[in-house]
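Journal club prep — side note

Before the paper discussion, L.F. wants everyone to see what a predicted structure for a comparable chain looks like in token form. Sequence:
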Amino acid sequence: MAFGDMPSEAFAEVAPYRDGAVYVSYYSGSSEWERHPNGDEVVMVLEGTTTVILWRDAREERHFLAADELIVVPQGMWHRFEGSERLKVMTITPQPTEHRLETPAT
């Protein structure tokens, strides 16, 4: 299931934070590409597993994450989630967020 197909109930804003917010979401599946031009995003897995894919130097860099692990996605870096299994994740996400379906251009 892609993010665009997920019910809005899968995502909840917990609190505003700086120019974005703290979010918690719960889902299985994969997401489209996204990036945050105004700041780093913190992604922490609370339950389940996922692979966070960063688009770095025109290639996919994969990071498997399980409960209690986190990654900081650098400002402006395209990234997506793949193979998420019963994933409950907390993010600190700056806004705006840009989305795309296709792999980013080099």
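L.F.'s comment for the group: Residues 1-7 have pLDDT under 50 and may be disordered. Keep this in mind when we get to the figures.
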